[in-house]
C-alpha cells in the first residue's frame, strides 16, 4: 500500500478526503466508495495519477489494462504518461473483432470480461487498473485474460482497497498497489 | 467543424490518428461500419496526438468542466481534463451514479436509453466541454447537452475523435452548440486483410 513501511506521501490524505462514501448504494448494507467526487478536484485527481505514474514509469510496463468502466477513468492517463498502450477490458459484446472472455462470480450469478486477442502478447509487461478492489473477482478475471495471451502481469493498481473482503488473496501472489484503504 | 478545416490542414497528426482507427464491417449488426478506436489506444503516439490536439484547442477557453459519455468518453475525457486543469464529470448509464442525479432519455434505433449526471457535480454557469469517441446521429451528444444545461452549465463545445461527414456541411452544430471532430470515419480496406 502507498503508505506502508514508509512516511506517507502527503498527497494521500488529500485524495482520501475527496472520496465520498455513500451508504446503502446500490443496495442496503453497502458503503459505496464514490470516486466521482475525487474527479471534481483537479489537484486531487492529478495527485492520484501522479502517484501511479511515479511508481510505474521505470518498471518497463508496455500495457495498461483498464477495467470497464471506472478503470477507463484512471488507466489511460497512466498509460499516456508512461508511454504504454491502453487496453480496455470490457463487458460482453462491446468489443468488435476477435476476443477472448473470462467469467467471474457476482454475488448472484456471474458476469464476463472480454479483451481483444491481438491487443496484448507474450512480450508484454502489464499493469491492471481499476478504481477499487473488493473481493478481487474482477481483477482476477482481468489477470487471467492477460495471462492467457502470454503477457506478464507485473502488478494490479487500484485507488481504493476494502481489505476486509480479502481481495488481495485472490491475486495469486501478484502484487497489489493501492492508495487508500477503507475499513 | 472538422479539425482539418480549422487550422489543422496539413497537420500530419491527423493522418496518423485516422490510420490508427480500425474499421470492423457489420458490427454490431449488418450494414454498420464500426469505427474501432481501441487500435488507436494501442498506439501511444497516435493516442497522445489526439489528446494534444484537444488540449491545445481547449486550454485557453476557460473550460472548468469536461463531461465524458460512458464508456469511451471516459478514455478521452480525463486526460484532457487533467491537462487543462478542469474537473471530469462522467455521464453514465442509469443506476450507476450515487447521490442526486438527473437523467435524460434519448432515442436508439430501436427503443431508447438514458444518461445520468450527478447534480452536485456542476456549478451554475460553469463552462463545459462534452467528449465522446464518435458522433453518428448526435442523439447521445444532444442528450448530454441537455443534461449539462439542466444542471446549470454552459456547454461551450462538443468534441469527438471521429464524426460522420454530415456534420461537415453547413453549420456543424448540435442543438446550437459547436461540434469539433478530428477525423472522418476510416474506410474499410479489404486489401489489408
Summarize the structure.
The complex is a heterodimer of chains A (183) and B (193). With 183 residues, chain A is an alpha/beta fold. Helices cover 28% and strands 31% of the residues of chain A.
Key attributes of the depicted protein:
heterodimer, A: 183 residues, alpha/beta, Rossmann fold, 5 helices, 28% helix, globular, B: 193 residues, two-stranded antiparallel sheet, 27% helix
Please specify the SSE layout and strand pairing.
The complex is a heterodimer of chains A (183) and B (193).
Chain A (H helix, E strand, L loop, with lengths): L9 H9 L1 E4 L7 E4 L1 H4 L2 H15 L6 E5 L3 H12 L2 E5 L9 E7 L4 E7 L8 E9 L3 H12 L3 E10 L14 E6 L2
Parallel strand pairs in A: 3-4, 3-7, 7-8, 8-9
Antiparallel strand pairs in A: 1-2, 5-6
Chain B lengths: L11 H9 L1 E4 L7 E4 L1 H4 L2 H15 L6 E5 L3 H12 L2 E5 L9 E7 L4 E7 L8 E9 L3 H12 L3 E10 L9 E2 L2 E7 L10
Parallel strand pairs in B: 3-4, 3-7, 7-8, 8-10
Antiparallel strand pairs in B: 1-2, 5-6, 9-10
Give the fraction of residues assigned to helices of chain A.
25-40%
**What amount of the residues of chain B lies in strands?**
25-35%
Average predicted confidence as pLDDT of chain A: 95
User: Which consecutive residue ranges of chain B, at least 5 long each, have pLDDT under 50?
Assistant: none
Largest sheet of chain B: 6 strands, mixed
Largest sheet of chain A: 5 strands, parallel
Distance between the termini of chain B: 32 Å
Structural class of chain B: alpha/beta
Can you count the helices of chain B?
5
How many DSSP E strands of chain B? 10
Regarding quaternary structure, how should these chains be classified?
heterodimer
According to CATH, the fold-level topology of the domain at 59-181 in chain A is Rossmann fold
User: Order of strands in the sheet with the most strands of chain B?
Assistant: 4-3-7-8-10-9
Number of strands of chain A: 9
Amount of beta strand of chain A:
25-35%
Average of pLDDT of chain B: 92
Strand order of the largest sheet of chain A: 4-3-7-8-9
SS-derived structural category of chain A: alpha/beta
Q: Which regions of chain A have little confidence, pLDDT < 50, spanning 5+ residues? A: none
Question: In whole angstroms, how far apart are the ends of chain A?
Answer: 14 Å
Radius of gyration of chain B: 16 Å
Amino acid at each position: 500500500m502507498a503508505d506502508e513501511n514508509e512516511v506517507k506521501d502527503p498527497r494521500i490524505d488529500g485524495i482520501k478526503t475527496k472520496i465520498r462514501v455513500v451508504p446503502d448504494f446500490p443496495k442496503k448494507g453497502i458503503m459505496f466508495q464514490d470516486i466521482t467526487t475525487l474527479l471534481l478536484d483537479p489537484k486531487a485527481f492529478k495527485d492520484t495519477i501522479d502517484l501511479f505514474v511515479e511508481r510505474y514509469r521505470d518498471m518497463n510496463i508496455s500495457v495498461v489494462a483498464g477495467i470497464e468502466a471506472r478503470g477507463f477513468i484512471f488507466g489511460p492517463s497512466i498509460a499516456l504518461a508512461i508511454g504504454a498502450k491502453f487496453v480496455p477490458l470490457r463487458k460482453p459484446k462491446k468489443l468488435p473483432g476477435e476476443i477472448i472472455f473470462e467469467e467471474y462470480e457476482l454475488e448472484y450469478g456471474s458476469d464476463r470480461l472480454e479483451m481483444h486477442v491481438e491487443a496484448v502478447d507474450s512480450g508484454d509487461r502489464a499493469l491492471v487498473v481499476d478504481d477499487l478492489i473488493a473481493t478481487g473477482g474482477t481483477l482476477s478475471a482481468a489477470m487471467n485474460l492477460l495471462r492467457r495471451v502470454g503477457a506478464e502481469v507485473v502488478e494490479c493498481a487500484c485507488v481504493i482497497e476494502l481489505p476486509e473482503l480479502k481481495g488481495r488473496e485472490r491475486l495469486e501472489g501478484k502484487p497489489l498497489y493501492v492508495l487508500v484503504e477503507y475499513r | 467543424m472538422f479539425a482539418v478545416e480549422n487550422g489543422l490542414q496539413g497537420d500530419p497528426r491527423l493522418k496518423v490518428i485516422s490510420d490508427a482507427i480500425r474499421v470492423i464491417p457489420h458490427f454490431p449488426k449488418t450494414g454498420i461500419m464500426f469505427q474501432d478506436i481501441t487500435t488507436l489506444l494501442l498506439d501511444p503516439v497516435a493516442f497522445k496526438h489526439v489528446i494534444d490536439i484537444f488540449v491545445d484547442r481547449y486550454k485557453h477557453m476557460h473550460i472548468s468542466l469536461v463531461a465524458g459519455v460512458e464508456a469511451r468518453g471516459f478514455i478521452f475525457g480525463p486526460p484532457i481534463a487533467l491537462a487543462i486543469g478542469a474537473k471530469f464529470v462522467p455521464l453514465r448509464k442509469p443506476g450507476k451514479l450515487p447521490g442526486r442525479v438527473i437523467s435524460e432519455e434519448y432515442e436508439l434505433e430501436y427503443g431508447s436509453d438514458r444518461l445520468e449526471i450527478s447534480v452536485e457535480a456542476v456549478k451554475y454557469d460553469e463552462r463545459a466541454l462534452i467528449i465522446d469517441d464518435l458522433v453518428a446521429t448526435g442523439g447521445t451528444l444532444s442528450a448530454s447537452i441537455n443534461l449539462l444545461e439542466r444542471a446549470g452549465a454552459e456547454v461551450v463545445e462538443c468534441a469527438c475523435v471521429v464524426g460522420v461527414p454530415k456534420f461537415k456541411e453547413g453549420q456543424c452544430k448540435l442543438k446550437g452548440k459547436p461540434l469539433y471532430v478530428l477525423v472522418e470515419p476510416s474506410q474499410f480496406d479489404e486489401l489489408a486483410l
